[in-house]
Amino acid sequence: MKLTLVNKKPEVANVESFLFKPEIDLTWQAGQFFRYHLEDLNPDTRKTNRYFTIASAPFEKLIMITTRFVPGDGSTFKKDLLNLKIGDSLEASGPSGDFVVEDPSEQSSSSNKNFIFIAGGIGITPFRSIILDLNHNQKPINIKLLYANRTPDFIFKSELESVQKKHPEFKIEYYVDPLRIDEKAIQLAINNYKQSLPFARAKRNLPMIYVSGPEPMVEAFGETLTKMGVAKNQIKQDFFPGYTAP
Ligand SMILES: Cc1cc2nc3c(=O)[nH]c(=O)nc-3n(C[C@H](O)[C@H](O)[C@H](O)COP(=O)(O)OP(=O)(O)OC[C@H]3O[C@@H](n4cnc5c(N)ncnc54)[C@H](O)[C@@H]3O)c2cc1C
User: Fold this and answer.
1) Domains of the chain as residue ranges with CATH
2) How far is the CA of 77 from the centre of ligand 1 (A)?
3) Distance (Å, rounded) from C-alpha 116 to C-alpha 94?
């Protein structure tokens, strides 16, 4: 499917969003991704295809890629993306992926309606889509977001905080290097959630834990959560290869 670039916007230093209009009417679930192809006659070893989360929410209609650029040292794919002009197009296929939340207001006894989201840097992209989607659909946002970044310029900070103003149940905790999201912080988030419920419900309705970010970070959290005794079916992971930990 052809996507045509209609806008670019800088987010924070070295992070930019690209907004594309799809050639057909299209829908996706917040948190899903596309595979993109950018023609290059002389690509580097990483070649001409990449996966990117659809950082926009479905109601926004445009497909948004938000990505980080390594000044002077990036791939040919990222250079080609950065050089795209308004009106240029690229090829995309999808949407794919199950890094999505079930409707938190649906009455299903098996559904988990509470979430802990762990984001490392650029890993915030699927969470932006999910959180803005819930807000747009006037659903509860029973989410605690633990958000780590190398620097204090958190991507989408003001958008997330404007959602938070309307949803006191939505909590954000920022971690700037050298502060790390550790086992203690996760355990505290789980305990706080459990304490807010009657004992029987707290036992059977643990929060789902979603982790998104650079591959080494997401793998490390997977191990930490398993060590903490969190069941595999309570964890969802979105791995971004090609980056080091935030
Ligand atoms: C499901 C999914 C969703 C994703 N969503 C996003 C998203 O929303 N946003 C996002 O930014 N990424 C996302 N990614 C990751 C994305 O696909 C890229 O892997 C990532 O952005 C790195 O891009 P790049 O390889 O072009 O390298 P760059 O970002 O250009 O560079 C990253 C690092 O690799 C080094 N490097 C660059 N080229 C080479 C090379 N040829 N050989 C060796 N080292 C090199 C650079 O020096 C730098 O240190 C997602 C991945 C998946 C699988």
Assistant:
1) 2-96 (2.40.30.10), 115-240 (3.40.50.80)
2) 9
3) 27
Please state the pTM of the whole predicted model: 0.94
Handedness of CA 57, 63, 69, 74 (dihedral sign): positive
* Residue among 170, 163, 55 at smallest CA distance from 115: 170
> pLDDT digit string (tens) for 160-203?
999 999 999 999 999 999 999 999 999 999 988 877 766 656 56
For the chain, the first-to-last Cα distance in angstroms comes to 32
User: Token pair 């807010």 is at which residue?
Assistant: 196
Residues 115/173/240/105 CA torsion (nearest 10 deg):
20
CA 25, CA 52: separation in Å to the nearest integer? 19
pLDDT tens, position by position, 104-122:
666 554 444 799 999 999 9
* Cβ(50) – ligand 1 distance below 6 Å: yes
Atom of ligand 1 nearest to the CA of 125: 8
Question: What spacing in Å lies between the alpha carbon of 119 and ligand 1's midpoint?
Answer: 16
